[in-house]
Design a protein that fits this description.
Layout lengths: L3 H6 L4 E5 L8 H11 L3 E5 L5 E2 L2 E4 L11 E4 L3 H14 L3 E4 L6 H9 L3 E4 L3 H4 L5
Parallel strand pairs: 1-2, 1-5, 2-4, 5-6, 6-7
Antiparallel strand pairs: 3-4
Helix pairs in contact: 3-4
Length: about 130
């Protein structure tokens, strides 16, 4: 399985940001805008929003118009577990779990699964500007 960094560098990856928001100081918004500004195709996922940064926002991963290359998770650990279960159900194997989105239950779930996961690494640090 390709590493998350390799997936970021692949041609035209699609990144679903779970927890995307317009709130200017929350990481779900900061990460969404950063990836978008770097030229990545990003899909906002947040059941409490219809739009993020002027883009459509979907209530769940199951509602997305296409399968993401990477699911980037920016929610509290209790919600992360539900997102991981949804990823497993949908066959989305590549999950990037942002710092603060994991606890021991999340780590145990990942260890027992067949998910290709990166935990506690910030996607903004690894993502390059795309041209």
């Amino acid at each position: 399985m390709a590493s998350m960094t390799e997936l970021l560098d692949s041609p035209d990856p699609v990144i679903a940001v779970v927890g995307a928001t317009d709130h200017p100081t929350k990481y779900g918004g900061i990460i969404y805008r950063d990836l978008k500004a770097k030229g990545y195709r990003v899909l906002a996922v947040n059941p409490g929003r219809s739009e993020v940064d002027g883009d459509r926002c979907w209530p769940s991963l199951a509602d997305l118009p296409e399968a993401p290359t990477i699911v980037d998770i920016v929610v509290p650990p209790a919600r992360t577990l539900r997102v991981l279960a949804e990823c497993t159900e949908l066959g989305y194997r590549n999950v990037w779990i942002q710092p603060g989105a994991a606890d021991e239950a999340v780590r145990s779930y990942v260890a027992a699964s067949d998910l290709n996961a990166l935990i506690d690494a910030c996607i903004m640090v690894r993502a390059r500007t795309r041209s």
